[in-house]
Give the backbone structure.
Amino acid sequence: MTKIILVRHGHVEGISPERFRGRADLELTELGRRQAEETAARIAASWTLAALYSSPLSRCRVTAEAIGRCFGLTPVPLPELIDIDYGEWQGLTPEDVRRKSPEALATWYRSPQWADIPGGESLQEVLARVVAALRNVIDSRPEDTVVIVGHDSVNRVILLHAHDLPLSRYWRLGQDPCAINEIDFSGGEFTVRSVNETWHLTRGPDVLKEARRDALARDPNVARSQ
């Protein structure tokens, strides 16, 4: 069985108030870096990793590096995990796009599977490249636990694929900054164990220490945070 710990990157500018970030190589904010460290502690308390993969954009790479330090692992960048290409929308707010292309924006929020972003990608294109990367990871790590650090759009598409749900359900899934999702793959099938888990970002260091202690009590082989 391959266990996939799917993580979204930490906070960046443009999440709130919202902008279409896409391929912009944004740095983590101070909040985002703190979230990455808290996420690393949460993962180290619960799983032993064999490998770590990331989108090549810095917000995912830095989040992955924080996790990797707990295990002595260096993130492997996978180009297929890069964020959706928003084309002409990149850097704009939804209000900016609404003034220029109200019908196109309405389609994106109402029926994302039909959205045609000028100069950008469709969700079908995102699905094709992300599933190819997912298949390669599973094939190379058939008995391991791995972390994949991706983007809001990438993670939603992976979760839809794992649930065997259509792209029309894209907006039905949440992916907060540094959310953790747990997915198992065995016998040709996915089992989704958890989605958008964020308790580790709000309960503070004492609870994370307690979680690590409990994990070690259950399994002495659980990796300790360095």
User: Anything to note?
Assistant: The radius of gyration is 17 Å.
